Amino acid sequence: MFVDRVRIRTIGGAGGNGCCSFRREKYVPRGGPDGGDGGNGGDIYIVAVSHVHSLVDLRFHFRWQGKRGVHGRGSDQHGKTGADTIIEVPCGTVVKDPESGETICDLVDPGQRFLAARGGRGGRGNARFASAENRVPRFAEKGEPGEDREYLLELKTIADVGIVGMPNAGKSTLLAAATAATPKIADYPFTTLSPNLGVAFLDTERTLVIADIPGIIEGAAQGKGLGHDFLRHIERTRVLLFLIDLGDADPEATLAVLEKELAEYSPVFADRPRVIAFNKMDITENRERLGALRAAFPDAYGISAATGEGVPRLLETLWKSVAESREADAIVIPAATTEEREYAYDVPFRITPVSGGFRVEGDRVVRAVRMCDLDNPEALRHLQQTFRKTGLFNALKRLGAQRGDSIFIGDTELEYTPD
Questions:
Q1: pLDDT, tens digit, for every residue of 239-258?
Q2: Between 333 and 164, where is the model more confident?
Q3: How much is the average pLDDT of 13-25?
């Protein structure tokens, strides 16, 4: 089964809890706190690999949960960091925001990875909070929850040449003749229901990756036929091969329809190199008709995908076009420049008035609440001290916060009590 569009949810591993422990050893008075830290939660990565060719493995695996960090223990034993989780996807997978449709990452090369969800930070043990003012801290931090995000994954086939044509133009037959691929071939429309890839070996050093794209019909750019489901797979091809049946009643109109659908779907095809080939020369009537079409299509190739006639010559032309495209896309490294570095200040928190109180946002403040044991009075005092140091209480006072107002931080609601 070929699947090229899935939605997944990734949840980074939660951090391990810190330990609240005290050293108890014979003949050692006042041993002191010795609770270890929890390990960090494991991250989740989306990685492009060459041995996966479809998103079918993700179709029924929507939720991905990262590994949790190990909890800390006494005797200053810190927890182990959770192992990273790897989601393998085919090369050419585009990671998008499911709500806005914005492209976040494009995984093209094997080994390229994207951090989908970061694991939570491990909680600190009570040994971390020992000070001259508080020599016996009786609290520890909880592990921070991991990031929770959803993504839309879309696969766009990566190939050197994309075969474009109407249904039953002979695209699958040409792919079978030029490569070792074995696509389904039949005499009814939409035989090909998913893109097929094949590798054509011109010689020991030259190869072409060819994609057989399902047939395009008029209105495909608006979703008719197979529509958008497979038009996206042509976007990454370097060269477009327009394959037209010599038995077509009006080849010029057919080519115009193909060009129109590609232009309406995406402007990226405007400058894409094109090669035109007329197929089914093995039929006598078609061979005689090819001469009459030379005036309108002087650079077109006549081939027979069924017998292989003209295919080697066509592959040589495609190779030259692909080679020129690769040279044009060569990366030029610019000369080093001495630009001034810019520094940006990010506020530690933001306060927004809401019904019944105020909502506070900010990574440091939200993390402090998430990792606080709200059932422990000492942990609550430490949280208040953290808020005081960051200036949160003063900011709320300036905004007119009154005793008893609700303060919303993340998923937690706290009651405001002025100093």
A1: 888 888 888 888 888 888 88
A2: 164
A3: 92
User: 317-321 contacts: CB < 8 A, separation 24 or more?
Assistant: 317/275, 318/160, 318/161, 318/208, 318/239, 318/241, 318/275, 319/202, 319/206, 319/208, 321/238, 321/239, 321/273, 321/275
The CATH homologous superfamily for domain 161-328 is: P-loop containing nucleotide triphosphate hydrolases (3.40.50.300)
> Tens digits of per-residue pLDDT, 346-393?
678 899 999 889 999 998 899 999 999 999 999 999 999 999 988 999
**Which has the higher per-residue pLDDT, 144 or 202?**
144
The Cα 37–Cα 379 span in angstroms is 16
Please state which CATH class domain 350-415 belongs to: alpha beta
Residue of higher predicted confidence among 335 and 148:
148
Specify whether the CB–CB gap between 287 and 281 falls below 8 A. Answer: yes
167: amino acid identity, one letter: P
Rounded CA gap, 113 and 405, in Å? Answer: 45
To 10 degrees, what angle do helices 311-328 and 171-178 make? 90
- From residue 309, alpha-carbon distances to 174, 177, 312 in Å are 11, 10, 8
- The whole-angstrom separation of Cα 67 and Cα 272 is 45
pLDDT of residue 176: 81
Task: Over range 72-93, report the average pLDDT.
Answer: 93
DSSP state letters, 96-112: E-TTT--EEEEE-STT-
Residue 304, classified by CB atoms within 10 Å of its CB into exposed (0-12), middle (13-18) or buried (19+), is buried
Strands annotated E in 214-302: 239-245, 274-279, 301-302
Name the fold adopted by 1-155.
Answer: Spo0b-associated Gtp-binding Protein; Chain: A, (2.70.210)
Q: What is the residue extent of each domain of the chain?
A: 1-155, 161-328, 350-415
> What average pLDDT does the structure give for the chain?
83
Residues near 295 by beta carbon (within 8 Å), at least 6 away in sequence: none
